[in-house]
Amino acid sequence: MFNILGNSLKLSIKELKVNKLRTALSLTGVAFGIFCIIGVLAFVNSIELNIQAQVNSLGSNTIYIDKWDYSGGPNQPFWKMRARPSMKYGEAGLVKSRSELLDDIAFLMQTRGSISHGDDLIQNASVYGIIEAQDVIQPLKFEVGRYFSASEFTQGTNVCLIGYTNAEDLFGSPERAIGKKIEIKGKQATVVGVIKKEGKNFIGWDYDNCIMLPYKFCRQVFQEDNSNPILIAKGKKGVSTDALSSELKGIMRQVRRLSPTQEDNFSLNSVEAFSNSISSFFSVLNVVGSIIGGISLIVGLFSIANIMFVTVKERTPIIGLKKAIGAKSSSILFEFLLEAALLCILGGAFGLLFVYLATLIVSRIANFPVFISLPMLMATIIICLVVGVLAGIIPASRAAKMDPVTAIRS
Prior knowledge:
The model has no long low-confidence stretch (mean pLDDT about 85). The chain folds into two domains: about 1-55 and about 275-410, no CATH class; about 85-265, no CATH class. Helix 1 (about 1-20) crosses helix 13 (about 330-365) and helix 11 (about 270-315) crosses helix 13 (about 330-365). The chain has helices spanning about 1-20, 20-55, 80, 90-100, 135, 150-155, 165-170, 175, 215-220, 240-255, 270-315, 315-325, 330-365, 375-400, 405-410; strands spanning about 60-65, 100-115, 120-130, 140-145, 160, 180-185, 185-195, 210-215, 230-235, 265-270. A six-stranded mixed beta barrel has the order 2-3-8-5-7-6. The chain is elongated. By secondary structure, the chain is α+β, with helices and mostly antiparallel strands.
C-alpha cells in the first residue's frame, strides 16, 4: 500500500513539473477560491473576536441600567425613551441595599468636554464621572500611576485619570503626566494615573482619549442630568444573567414607585445579550461569506476536473500498458485521485499564503490584529482534499475502467 502511494506521489509530482503552465492555471483557480473562503472567514472572525473582547471588557455578568434601550427597534421609539427620567446617584445605593444577587453596582456620568494644560488644548475628550465600584466592575489597567483612593471618592477631591493619548498630547509621555494639573471647564484636577493604551474601540468607550473624575468632583463641573448617567450592575459569581435581570427589574420598579399598570421607565441592557447578538450577526456573515467563496472554489473545481480529463487522455497508452502488466483498477483510480488532491492542496497553500499577506497588510492599516486560526488551517486542508476528490473522481474512474488493449492501441 505504501509502495503504491509513494510511486503514485512521485508520478504525480513529475507530471506537475512537466506541465508547468497547465499546473499553474489549475492552481490559480483553487488558490483564488481558498483565498475567498479563508480570507472572508479570517477577517470576519478577527473582527468578531476583537469586538467580543471589547464587549467582555464591559464586565462579565453585567447589566447596564439606563433610560435608553441599546437594542433600539420600532418598539422603543426615540421620543419615548428620551422622556424617561435619567438615572440618579442615590438609586445605586437603594438597588444595592435591596438586592441579594448583586456583587456591586456603579454609577457613571459620561459626557464630553475640553481639557487643557498650559497652551495645549484637547477638544471633545470623553469625560467619565465614576464611583469606587467602577474598578470592581470594569478593572482599569494603568500605564503609570494609580486608581482613586477611598478618601478621594468620599471628599470629591479634584484629581483625575487620563487616557494614554491625552497624556502624550498634553505632556509628551505618560510618565511626565503624573502630578501635573489639567484644567477642565475652569476647574483644575491633578493627574494621579494614566490608563494603559487600548487602541481603537468599536463599542463606544474611548479610554485613550478620556479623563476620569471622582463622581462628587465631576458633578461640580458638569450637570448630572445632562451627562447621560447610567447604573452598571454586576451579579455575584454563579448568578445567571436572567435571574439578575429579573431581580433588578423588580427592584427598579420599587425604587421608582411604579404601579403594576405603569410601564418601565428604564431599560436593562445585558452585556451577555449584546454578545449573543454579535455572535448571531457574525454567524450569518460567515455563512454569506462562505457561499460567496464557495462559488469561487467551484470554478477552481471545474478547472482541475478539466485538467484531469486532459491528463487521462494524454496518458491513455500508459494506463493501458500498466493494466496489461497487472496494475489493478484501484491503483489507477488512486493515482489520479492523488494527483487531483495534490493539485488542490498546492492551490490551497498558495491561497493561504495570499490570505496571510493580506492579513499583515490589513492589520497594519486597520490597527487591529487579523489572523488565521488553526481550525481554519485544518478546514483548508479538508476543503482541498474534498475538492480534489470531487474534481478527480470522474476522470479517475474513466481511467480505471479502461480496457488495456483498447488503451494501448489509442
